[in-house]
Structure formats: structure tokens, C-alpha cells
Amino acid sequence: MKEKVVPFLKWAGGKRWFVQRYESLLPKEYNKYFEPFLGSGAVYFTLLPEKAVLNDANKDLIEAYRGIKSRWRKVYELLKEHDQLHSKDYYYRIRSARYDLLEERAARMIYLNRTCFNGIYRVNLKGEFNVPIGTKTKAILDTDDFSRVSSALKKAKILNKDFEKVIDQAQENDFLFVDPPYTVRHNQNGFIKYNEVLFSWDDQIRLAKSLIRARDRGVKILMTNASHHSIRELYEPLGFDLKVVSRFSSISASSINRNKYEELIIMANINREGIQQ
Predict the structure, then answer these.
(1) CA-based angle 140:146:149, to the nearest 5?
(2) How many CB atoms lie within 10 A of CB 139?
(3) CATH 3.40.50.150 residue spans of the chain
(4) Half-sphere exposure (Cβ direction) of 188: Cα atoms closer than 13 Å
(5) What is the pTM assigned to this prediction?
(6) pLDDT tens, position by position, 79-111
(7) 36, 58, 74, 109: which has the highest count of C-beta atoms within 10 A?
(8) How many angstroms separate the CA atoms of 258 and 231, rounded?
(9) What number of other Cβ atoms are within 10 A of residue 131's Cβ?
(10) Cα separation of 233 and 228, whole Å?
(11) Is the dihedral of CA 130, 135, 139, 143 positive or negative?
């Protein structure tokens, strides 16, 4: 069995919990792996497929992946500098800095991700990253193995496109893992409300239509989404297989709100035998 690779980023809505508890849901056989909303890549780094297409609309995120894929040694050296120089003033100086080289932009992204508040990625109306400094002070982690991450990414094509263009590439017996921002209809709750700016309800409808086309082509699909009646009403009539799971959320700023809540697993063309409840 392949040894899993530890994701190098913390990401709101990341799926480490999913692969720890529900890896049995993932198909064992498929041709090519597609992930249109990459985030921290927890599922990709668990499966380590031989052929993959990885995508995200977040350019800074994708540049971090591309930097490690092609220039991981340079990225790591720059990240060590950030680690040694880290302070409140330094954090805000790097947050406002702009760089020309890919390795510099990748190291900046990883440094900010590891030292900002709760690993959240948020931008202002100008598209500038504006998350305040957090309590973590280490930009270098004990789990870092950029050489292995780079080797894993060598097998993947890394894109910065709209999700629909990536989903439309998947063909029969490919596997599509989909983890969109959790936007729901008529929702006014915290982080999901912020997601609405990035991923609207119209985008959810567009995503559903693209997944119908993929399913009809014979693509194996597994999607995680908000367990909300508007999402269920969107997919149940379309013949998808729905399963509700619970997980622990630690992204909330309030400890009162850090508790178990339900998420929805939506599948198509996947054999459910042996699934753990």
C-alpha cells in the first residue's frame, strides 16, 4: 500500500477528517483522478493516484502547489527564512508584499497560511489577502516533507480554471472528487455567507448540471457538501446517492460553536458495498 502524504496546508473545509473516517467510500479502481476544488488536497494525498488533474480557482493556492511541484527546495529555504524572522510586524509586511518569482509567491502563501488566524483564506474587495495574524508561530512543521509532496504532485496536472471546465474533462471510469464551498440557498451563517461571494447558489446549480453530465458519461463521483435541505432538494430528484455523515469542526472562532455537525456525501457510479456506517 502507498504511504499517505501529509497535506502541507490547513484549509477551511479541509477533508482530513473525511479520509480518516470515510476512506472506504472512495473507489479503489478508476482511470484518472479529478479534483476541481483542491484546497488542502487531503483526498489526493491519501489516494496518490497515478494520473490526476488538480484544480482550484484560488490562484495563490495553485501557485503554492506549482512552486512545491517544480521548485520545492527553493520554497523550503524561503519558508525557513520566514520561520526565523516571524513576528507581528514581519507577518503584516509579508502579507502586503508582492513577489515576482514562483518560489517566493509559494513560500509567502504557505507562511501566511500557517501563521494567520485559523488558516483561513480571505480576501478584500481588491482581492488582497486580509486575514489577521494568528497564534501559531511556526512556519516550518515537523510533518514537512516537501520532497515527497513534490514527487506526488509530479503525477498531476495542476490547473487554475473554472470548476466546470475541469469536470467536463472527466470521462468514463475516471474518478471525480468534488468539495465545493458550502453555499446554500437563503443562508446567513458566518463562513458560508462569505462563501456566497466566491461561490453563489447559481454556481451550485451550475455544478449540479455539470455533475449530471459527468455521471451520464460514466464518471465515478463523490462530492461533499452542506447537509442542508436546499442541497438535498437539488440532488435527490436527480438520482444521486446521498449519505449524511457527522464530523467535528474546529474552524469556528467560538469554542461553543466547535462541535459536531452534519455534512452530505453525494455519490454516483460508486459501488457502496463495504461502506462503514
Answers:
(1) 135
(2) 24
(3) 16-57+161-268
(4) 0
(5) 0.89
(6) 999 999 999 999 999 999 999 999 999 999 999
(7) 36
(8) 23
(9) 17
(10) 9
(11) negative
| Fold adopted by 16-57+161-268 | Rossmann fold (3.40.50)
- Pairing verdict, β 260-268 and 33-35: unpaired
CA dihedral 249, 251, 253, 259 (to 10 degrees): 0
CA 16 to chain centre: 10
Residue that the C-alpha cell 516571524 belongs to = 86
Instruction: Answer whether 212's CB lies under 8 Å from 167's CB.
Output: no
Distance of CA 2 to the CA centre of its chain: 21
pLDDT tens per residue across span 151-172: 999 999 999 999 999 999 999 9
Structure-block grid coordinates of residue 36: 476541481
- CATH code of domain 62-149: 1.10.1020.10
Q: Per the structure block, which three cell numbers stand in for 262? A: 452534519
CB 16 within 8 A of CB 121: no
Beta bridge partners of 52: 33, 156
In the chain, CATH 1.10.1020.10 covers 62-149
Cell of 214: 459527468
The grid coordinates of residue 49 equal 493516484
pLDDT band at 1 (very low <50, low <70, confident <90, very high): low
Burial of 186 (0-12, 13-18, 19+ CB in 10 A): exposed
